[in-house]
Amino acid sequence: MANETITFTNSKGEVKTRRAPVGQEAFIEAVYAAHAAGDGVNGVCERTGLTKGSVEARMTKYRTDKGIPLPTFAGGKGAPRMNVDKARELAARLSGKPLETIVAEGEALVAKSAARKAAKAAETASA
Length: 127
Description:
This protein has helices at residues 24-37, 40-48, 52-64, 84-95, 99-126, and strands at 5-9, 15-19. It is mainly alpha-helical. Helix 1 crosses helix 2 and helix 4 (84-95) crosses helix 5 (99-126). The radius of gyration is 20 Å and the shape is extended.
């Protein structure tokens, strides 16, 4: 699976080769196989040819957005929890904006993201 490639001709007429996409079935099988073998996320990477970041992001998406109960890997504590207040203070200092502006902009971003997710969920439910 990890060594599969596809060859195609782009709009400029150039012949290109890239890694074949990893379908959801192959991805989920790779996750369970790596878990059973005790290989961790790196085992999923080896089986699929995806980067560690791609594997972790896709596993999170499958779990949280799609509700697919994928196994967790030992030691997968990830990054420490974000201290939002400290992050906002840093952003304010680096951007030169007042903290209140940073907080307001952040809340607007969160609201926009929540609205997008709600719209997508409503669209999926009606389909």
